[in-house]
Amino acid sequence: MIISQPKYIFAPFILMLSNLVNAETISIGTVNNGDMKRMQSLSSVFEKQHPDIKLEWVVLDEAVLRGQITKDIAAESGKFDVITIGMYETPIWGKNNWLVPMDNLPASYDVDDIFNSVRQGLSYQDKLYALPFYGESSMTMYRKDLFEKAGLTMPDSPTWDFMAEAAAKIHDPDNGIYGACLRGKAGWGENMALLTTMINAYGGRWFDMQWQPQFESDEWKNALNQYLNILTNYGPPAPYNNGFNENLSLMNKGHCGFWVDATVAGSFVMDKEQSNIVDKVGFTSAPHQVTSKGSSWLWSWALAVPVTSDAKEAAKTFTTWATSKAYLALVAEKYGVISTPPGTRKSTYANPEYMEQAPFAAVTLAEINSADPTDSTLQENPYTGIQFVAIPRFQSFASKVGKQISSILSGKTSIERGLMISQKIVYRQMLRGKYIELQCVDNTQNPVIQHTADTITAPQTSNNESVEEANIEVSTGNVVETVEESVISTEAPVE
Question: Contact, 286 vs 197, CB < 8 A?
Answer without folding.
Answer: yes
